[in-house]
Specification:
The complex is a heterodimer of chains A (114) and B (115).
Chain A: E1 4-7, E2 10-13, E3 19-25, E4 32-38, E5 44-51, E6 57-58, E7 67-73, E8 76-81, E9 90-97, E10 104-105, E11 109-113
Parallel strand pairs in A: 2-11
Antiparallel strand pairs in A: 1-3, 3-8, 4-5, 4-9, 5-6, 7-8, 9-10, 9-11
Chain B: E1 4-5, E2 10-14, E3 19-25, E4 32-38, E5 45-51, E6 56-59, E7 62-67, E8 72-77, E9 86-93, E10 103-105, E11 109-114
The chains are: A mainly beta (114), B mainly beta (115).
Chain lengths: 114, 115
């Protein structure tokens, strides 16, 4: 099946640090990548939709200057959490898709801001 | 406003018996529904899906049923196996054929299959 690699799997850093998370589709060209956030025992909440070569579309309530998304190629999207604070601590998951196919997910990144 | 709801946070089933996971939705524009399975510390894995033009889709031990009039879908696993123990997420899309479709997820149901 389709493989999506997400890196790093775990980040622990000090408040004020910017953190970059990478999402790669390893065996297919992903026209669209999605970024989600999940709080404990809750649903996956879509943060933004990213199409290769264009600006990301952010969901209501998600600060685009806080969560910078770059989708430079059909196999790579990055999410940068800028000047992270403890309230940004969460589980971030990316997914990749192509038209008419289900989204395939990475294994997520556990972000802990001290 | 929770457009996709999984009202049972957990379900426990004996090995060999049937597991039934339920999902309700409110948006009549949803035209595609998916089930994902998630183990701890891993991302969700696609399991099975159904288009709104169908009422049933079967894949091995997994069957998804869709009742559009009730805005309800269910996932049946039979026979259940201990390895099926995981969190199951229901997801819905209103634009699936367009660029893979934005998904709205339910809260998940944690299935535990006892040997």
């Amino acid at each position: 099946g389709a493989v999506v690699s997400q890196h790093p799997s775990r980040v622990i850093c000090k408040s004020g640090t910017s953190v970059k998370i990478e999402c790669r589709s390893l065996d297919f060209q992903a026209t669209t990548m999605f970024w989600y956030r999940q709080f404990p025992k809750q649903s996956l909440m879509l943060m933004a939709t990213s199409n290769e070569g264009s600006k990301a579309t952010y969901e209501q309530g998600v600060e685009k200057d806080k969560f910078l998304i770059n989708h430079a190629s059909l196999t790579l999207s990055t999410l940068t959490v800028t000047s992270a604070h403890p309230e940004d601590s969460s589980f971030y998951i990316c997914s990749a898709s192509r038209p008419g196919q289900p989204q395939h997910f990475g294994d997520g990144t556990r972000l802990s801001i001290l | 406003d929770q457009q996709v709801k999984q009202n049972s946070p957990s379900l426990s089933v004996q090995e060999g018996r049937i597991s039934i996971l339920n999902c309700d939705y409110t948006n009549s524009m949803f035209d595609y529904f998916l089930w994902y399975k998630k183990y701890p510390a891993e991302g969700p894995t696609f399991l099975i899906s159904i288009s709104s033009i169908k009422d049933k889709n079967e894949d091995g031990r997994f069957t998804v049923f869709l009742n559009k009039s009730a805005k309800h879908l269910s996932l049946h696993i039979v026979p259940s196996q201990p390895g099926d123990s995981a969190v199951y997420f229901c997801a819905a899309s209103a634009e699936f054929d367009n660029q893979g479709g934005k998904l709205i997820f339910g809260q998940g149901t944690e299935l535990s299959v006892k040997p």
